[in-house]
Design a protein that fits this description.
With 459 residues, the protein is an alpha/beta fold. 25% of the residues lie in helices and 27% in strands. A hairpin with a 2-residue loop joins strand 13 and strand 14. Bound molecules: thymidine-5'-diphosphate (TYD) and magnesium ion (MG).
């Protein structure tokens, strides 16, 4: 007999429950916090009796647990496998989020191409028609019998079909379009997203079939829906980049089966997404020569060093208050760095607008980019180009001091590999650091010394 289900509305603040939705919680007075929830009648059991499964779970000593290597399957897309930590783990749930049009459906369809060589794949689409998927698949050159497409949003039917087909992989595009018939609220609402994810997770864990979910993000860049969605899944991959730029960055913000912060770089082409094998070279291509306001930084994204160009533009302010914008960099950090330049290096930026841009549409959130941002701004302010073969890295503190960053040797080797001849870095990073051949290391103590070194060294 199926478990009897009913729904109630629970306040997410205080847990008050009510049979109908209310705008204001009568218990704690919070507005708009009532969320629909399915209550499944639990089988009655005596308090001391074992759990309903009939098996009593007992604590085991850590040393007594046998460790099975988790079974992984490669998706055949190098950069995606890298971000996943070496392929998809059986029974795991992966959430891929990103803005509309960034390429989530394209990436998953491409992944299906090699996944379906190992077993049937069920691709559920709640957003596009079968004809639209077919069109995209032919554009990507995919035509396979073991890739099954289901245009459906009703989760009950999806799970039923999955049960019949017994696929090896399931893709849900997207979780916000799915609904569970047990609930009255609309697809995409907090209650629905949570319920659907929970049921899909049960399916993944009991059947061992990996489930790949597409998740939308809202205007602030957060995954639309409850935060609990991120807690439930095993891996969260965020697709970043600008729609008008061909580079796309896939970043793992959570990964139970690998290291987080690992990134993968793709390029969107007419034939779909392709791996970028040498990201640093790709990101630096098209760098202007002899132009002021451009500086190269050696950052580390995940376990991989990456060179990236940062541009700064300083112009006289036409209006009363100076404007500051930053793209690809935290705005508050950018404003802070400008303030440090003003106070510690004597640059009078108060009457100037300042614009900062990370080239290529990437987002850099590592403190090691501080020095690069500041030197790009100084270069534009002085209207003096920075040597083309010079790159920098280092965190800058509030007193203008340069602070050591991690992975210095990885950064300098990447610079040497790409033919750079000089690198300005924090003096505190020099401990035990060996200069690779052809690269001159120029250690500095503070931002003043960095500016002097940057604009006074000749080739
Ligand atoms: P899509 O995967 O539909 O994005 P999402 O699912 O994240 O909303 O990608 C859509 C964009 O990608 C669309 O603007 C067209 C472009 N695109 C290409 O440039 N080349 C291709 O081969 C494909 C399939 C899409
Ligand atoms: Mg899509």
């Amino acid at each position: 007999m199926p478990a009897k289900k009913k729904t109630v509305f629970l306040c997410t603040e205080c847990g008050y429950d009510s049979p109908k939705w209310m705008g204001k919680c009568p218990s704690c007075g919070a507005w708009n916090t009532m969320v629909e929830e399915v209550v499944r009648a639990a089988p009655a059991r005596a308090s001391a009796a074992p759990a309903s499964s009939g098996k009593e779970s007992r604590p085991v000593p850590l040393s007594g647990i046998t460790q099975d290597e988790e079974e992984r399957v490669l998706t055949g897309i190098g950069e995606l496998d890298r971000v996943l930590g070496g392929g998809i783990v059986r029974g795991s749930m992966v959430l891929i989020s990103g803005e509309p049009g960034i390429g989530k459906s394209t990436l998953l369809l491409q992944a299906c191409r090699s996944l379906c060589q190992r077993g049937p794949v069920l691709y559920v689409t709640g957003e596009e028609s079968l004809a639209q998927i077919k069109m995209r698949a032919s554009r990507l050159g995919i035509d396979r019998d073991d890739l099954y497409i289901l245009a459906e949003t009703d989760l009950d039917n999806i799970l039923l079909q999955a049960d019949k087909l017994k696929p090896d992989y399931v893709v849900i595009d997207s979780i916000q379009t799915m609904f569970s018939g047990d609930m009255t609220s609309a697809p995409g609402s907090v209650g629905q997203v949570r319920e659907c994810t929970m049921r899909l997770m049960q399916f993944a864990k009991t059947s061992g079939v990996p489930v790949l979910l597409v998740g939308h993000i809202n205007k602030d860049g957060n995954i639309a829906g409850p935060k609990v969605l991120e807690h439930m899944v095993d891996t969260v991959l965020a697709f970043e980049g600008e729609r008008h730029n061909s580079y796309r960055m896939l970043r793992a913000s959570k990964n139970r089966f690998g290291s987080t912060n690992e990134i993968g770089l793709f390029e969107m082409t007419g034939d779909g997404l392709i791996d970028v094998p040498n990201p640093s070279a790709a990101l630096l291509s098209g760098r202007p020569e002899n132009a002021s306001g451009s500086c190269v930084v050696a950052t580390i994204e995940g376990s991989r060093p990456l060179l990236s160009e940062i541009q700064g533009l300083v112009t006289k302010s036409a209006y009363g208050s100076a404007r500051r914008t930053s793209a690809g960099l935290d705005y508050n950090r950018a404003v802070l760095l400008l303030a440090i330049l003003e106070k510690r290096a004597g640059l009078m930026l108060g009457a100037f607008d300042a614009y900062i841009n990370v080239v290529g549409g990437l987002t850099l959130d590592e403190p090691a980019v501080d020095l690069c941002v500041m030197l790009a701004i100084v270069s534009s302010y002085l209207d003096r180009p920075i040597r083309h073969d010079l790159a920098v890295f280092g965190e800058v503190g509030l007193s203008g001091e340069l602070r050591a960053v991690s992975g210095a040797s990885q950064r300098v080797s990447e610079l040497a590999r790409l033919g750079f001849h000089a690198c300005i870095l924090p003096a505190t990073n020099m401990n035990g650091l060996k200069a690779p051949e052809g690269l001159r290391l120029m250690p500095v103590k503070d931002i003043r010394e960095a500016i002097k070194t940057c604009f006074e060294t000749e080739k």
